[in-house]
TrEMBL record:
GO molecular function terms listed in the Swiss-Prot or TrEMBL record: ATP binding; ATP hydrolysis activity; ATP-dependent DNA damage sensor activity; endonuclease activity; mismatched DNA binding
DNA mismatch repair protein S5 domain: residues covered: 210-328
Organism: Desulfomonile tiedjei
Keyword hit for Iron: no
Entry GO terms, CC: mismatch repair complex
Function description: This protein is involved in the repair of mismatches in DNA. It is required for dam-dependent methyl-directed DNA mismatch repair. May act as a 'molecular matchmaker', a protein that promotes the formation of a stable complex between two or more DNA-binding proteins in an ATP-dependent manner without itself being part of a final effector complex.
Entry-linked Pfam families: DNA_mis_repair (PF01119), HATPase_c_3 (PF13589), MutL_C (PF08676)
Classification via InterPro entries: DNA_mismatch_repair_CS, DNA_mismatch_repair_MutL, DNA_mismatch_S5_2-like, HATPase_C_sf, MutL/Mlh/PMS, MutL/Mlh/Pms-like, MutL_C, MutL_C_dimsub
Protein name, as recorded: DNA mismatch repair protein MutL
């Protein structure tokens, strides 16, 4: 009888295991840099060539290793970060399995140079395909250098399936950006084929690292988040709509400093923005979640890219509430003493000076003229390390110049000319009121119709409408079934000013029947409320009295409305005075 089952060779075992930890160059960079972070390095340099296929070099000034520890570090499951099985319950380091160096060494030519703070010489070790080629004691400064040469040279199948160099480099770029965001107190230098791609010196605050890594266009649209529920805290930054991206890679999520991808987190982020963006668009977010290590399991994925939360609803609620709170109009401002201003102000503001010198216009003037309020004066924060969040150019402080054809209102602040979409603003106000009333369980008052309206639909449409009568009644619509496929509307909410009820309800039914929304009741409700607000909002008034415009601005101010309508369209378009002066040839 033949023995068909055999124990694999140790080298084959190591290469199979390496495939779980190291699938491409970015995995190698991730493991090595995380080791440097765990070694308490304050400076990390990463160099790659040919997308990391030819060379990956990571050098740090961490606490390094002794000669004996360096040898042990190259053994599988040898680590300084765990002592017992209990430590897996509350992992507080970036790495913990002890697989990275051994796995990398089995599929590359690896050179390790390291030295600790002792008086003993450092160690230099060369390993090719998991086989030790050289070992000697050398003089070296405190810290560790790891060079990975010709990755997958002995696993041609894996090498064949790597993408082109540019694609692999882009993945590493994204990883380094994430790590630099997560650890602002560590200096990162990153070069690609001999050219410096990132040079981020250590800073005290995450804000300063954001300033270094992102363009002014991004910074100008960010608002800060800092929200806590019980033992979960979420902080960071999100971009104000209508600033959007084309894919979900613009959402950076960190749990206790670890960059992760998680469906729960992504779902919570998308739900928070669901009423602020068009479909197919994604937010820009940098979210840092902090919680006790025992509340999150990081030992569920070989590359530590996925996690499991002990209290997923608490995490989801923290993200939802934090983002919602942050998007109430607070601007993203630098702390005092920032290296360069994010919002440079023109040295001479002729428009605001002119407005201040003009006498107030009295009420007897023509209807488009209104009293000009004094400009909003901003205060400074006293604490040197605090951020300053204030509603600069708030709606109630804006002056009204008049209105353009269709639904556009022309406003101004000290340093901007602002065009407001009247319909989009009214839609935003109505939607926020409907959402707030629904969350409080309130029912809007209904105004009876002199002549009730009878509506008739197909069997499918009737079933869809009947399923949502309770919601419509809470919104203030007095509607009842009036036969098998017939409904009667006896009253409408006070804010509903239209008369074409048949078109209005047909539109709602279309939303109800949208197959893409089935299976998500909360989103279906939001989409219905969006449609109600859109249909009920004032369309394109031929004339807008100053009192009406002022009332709209005050409503926007009181509601803390977002800068977009519920469908993601912007409420305003802004032109800075400096931009206008430049276009007019003025300096």
């Amino acid at each position: 009888m033949s023995n068909r089952i055999r124990v694999l060779d140790e080298g084959v075992i190591n290469r199979i295991a390496a495939g779980e930890v190291v699938d491409r160059p970015v995995s190698v960079v991730k493991e090595l840099v995380e080791n440097s972070i765990d070694a308490e390095a304050t400076s990390i340099r990463i160099d790659i060539e040919r997308g990391g296929k030819k060379l990956i070099r990571v050098r740090d000034n961490g606490f390094g290793m002794s000669h004996d520890d360096a040898f042990l570090a190259l053994e599988r499951h040898a680590t300084s970060k765990l002592r017992s099985e209990k430590d897996l319950i509350s992992v507080a380091t970036m790495g913990f399995r002890g697989e990275a160096l051994a796995s990398i060494a089995s599929v590359s030519k690896l050179r390790l140079v390291t030295s600790d703070a002792s008086d003993e010489p450092g160690a230099e070790i060369l390993v090719e395909g998991g086989i030790l080629r050289k070992s000697e004691r050398v003089g070296a400064g405190k810290g560790t250098l790891v060079e990975v040469i010709n990755l997958f040279y002995n696993v041609p199948v894996r090498l064949k399936f790597l993408k082109e160099n540019r694609w692999e480099s882009d993945l590493i770029d994204e990883l380094i950006t994430k790590l630099a965001l997560a650890f602002p107190k560590i200096g990162f230098t990153y070069s690609q084929d001999g050219k410096i791609k990132l040079d981020a010196p250590p800073v005290r605050l995450t804000f300063e690292r954001v300033h270094a890594l992102h363009s002014k266009d991004v910074r100008d649209n960010l608002v800060a988040i800092d929200y806590s529920i019980k033992d979960v805290r979420v902080h960071g930054y999100v971009a104000k709509p209508p600033y959007v991206k084309s894919n979900m890679r613009s959402v950076f999520t960190f749990v206790n400093g670890r960059s992760i991808r998680d469906r729960l987190v992504n779902s919570a982020v998308m739900r928070a923005f669901s009423n602020l963006m068009e479909r197919g668009r994604y937010p820009l977010a940098m979210l840092f979640l902090e919680m006790p290590p025992e509340q999150v399991d990081v030992n569920v994925h070989p590359q530590k890219a996925e996690v499991r939360f002990r209290k997923p609803k608490l995490v989801s609620d923290a993200i939802l509430n934090g983002i919602h709170e942050s998007l109430m109009g607070a601007p993203f401002n630098p702390p005092p003493g920032q290296r360069e201003p994010l919002f440079p102000m023109p040295s001479y503001n002729s428009l605001s000076r002119h407005m201040r010198e003009e006498a107030p216009i009295i009420e007897e003037m023509p209807s488009r003229a209104v009293t000009v309020p004094p400009p909003c004066q901003e205060s400074r924060m006293d604490e040197p390390e605090a951020f300053e969040y204030k509603k600069s150019g708030s709606y109630s402080s804006m002056g009204v110049l008049g209105h353009l054809p269709n639904s556009f209102v022309v406003l101004y602040t000290d340093d901007e000319l602002v065009v407001l979409d009247h319909h989009a603003a009214h839609e935003r106000i109505l939607f926020d009121r409907l959402i707030a009333a629904d969350s409080r369980g309130e029912t809007s008052e209904s105004q009876g119709l002199l002549i009730p309206t009878v509506l008739e639909y197909s069997a499918v449409e009737s079933r869809a409408l009947a399923a949502h009568l309770t919601l419509l009644r809470k919104m203030g619509f007095a509607i009842d079934e009036f036969g098998e496929k017939t409904f009667i509307v006896k009253g409408v909410p006070g804010w509903y000013k239209r008369s074409d009820l048949e078109e209005f309800f047909s539109s709602l039914i279309a939303v109800m029947l949208d197959t893409g929304l089935r299976g998500d009741p909360s989103r279906l409700k939001d989409e219905l409320l969006k449609d109600i607000a859109c249909k009920a909002a004032v369309k394109e008034p031929t004339e807008m009295r100053p009192q009406e415009i002022r009332a709209l601005l005050e409503d926007l101010e009181r509601s803390n409305a977002a800068e977009v309508c519920p469908h993601g369209r912007p409420l305003t378009v802004r032109f800075s005075l400096s931009e206008i002066r430049k276009k007019m040839g003025r300096k």
